[in-house]
Amino acid sequence: MGSRACGPTSRTPTAPRPPAAPAALAGLLGCVLGATACGGDGPPPRAPAERAADSAPAVDALVAGRFEEAATAASSALARDPRNATAAAVRAIARYQGAGAALLAGLERVLEEADDLRALDHEAGRLAWQRFVERLDAIDADLAVAAADPGLALELCPACWEHDWNRSGEVDDRDRRLFEIEVDRAGDELPQGDPRRRPTFRLDVGDAHWARAMVAFQRAAVELILAYRWTELDRLGRERRPRLVIRLAEPARVRRARALILAGVDHADRCRAAYLAEPDDDREWVPSPRQRSYAVPLPVDAALYETWAAITGDVRRLIRGDEGLSLRELAALVDDELAARVPDAYVDVGRLLGAPADLVLDLGGRGDDRNQVERVLRGLLGKAYAARMKRSPLPGRLRAMKAELERGEDTAGRKLRYLLWLN
Fold this sequence. Notes:
3-stranded antiparallel β-sheet; single chain; 15 helices; mainly alpha; globular
């Protein structure tokens, strides 16, 4: 409890007291859990009406697409009450926009300042990725606050934002169409100017879990990028058959990526459970099978939710090393002819993330096409290349989902993009 206690203290020895009354125990528990009235850190929580008033300027700024202003106003609201879920959600969204813009600007500078791709400033690139992952860490902390409030509600129209997304110097038609819904549920293109292209979503606690999953997977990807030193890639194009060794510089980052992937899967499961438990049906970002008020042109039924649950289970078994990814099945997701050239072997994802090593890209050997592919894969995967493993059903599930969505080549890509909303 520290040096401070709830209520007055006495230095005079006293006789043993009887057990505390329930009211006293309740007060003690409140001190331990709340730590607000007893000298703990942070201001006391504010009433719902006060929270709504505190966060209103941030919400208004976000709705208008003024992201920096929204983040600043949300920070002011959170200074008054760190548990203000609406302000936390607004700041997370605004910060995410800023983090993405800063990353793109940093990587563009690296590319612009290089004479060619073989003379990149790797340290400047690492710094851009490091700052991005630090911002994602802070964004996740805000999303955790938002996800802790079952009453979270935030109305937002992303397609209505007037923002220079492509950084052309002005808001043009491409910017305005970026977040528009392009087709209806039948796959027919919505006319330009149709209000259905710009729906307002009512974001809730399930969507906060969805965002935490998305951010966790992105954090994992960046940790993997930062775990290795990529300077060897500068030799590509300079040598005819190079043998490159991408050094593992920070193994702890790979372990962190593993933990983040598992955390992302947990968030996805919470997200799915929250969607299924929602009592309302109001402008859903991702609907449950029984909800009908949604804009995403993707049929949502019980089978899709069952597949979603199965996939998170698949990922957990992969991370634990209980199952492996068939290299041929992975290649078949891209091209059947490619699959014919890939060896009948597996990626042991558990070993890949649990016992990481240098990546060896050996392009210098000779032999037939299949032997060359196997040599390259063995070098890249190291001990994570497995001749035999229990086969994961994940590639098969993804292939089946892809086939179900392909109702005409022109709409398959769009539907797959919308499917990514399910992380």
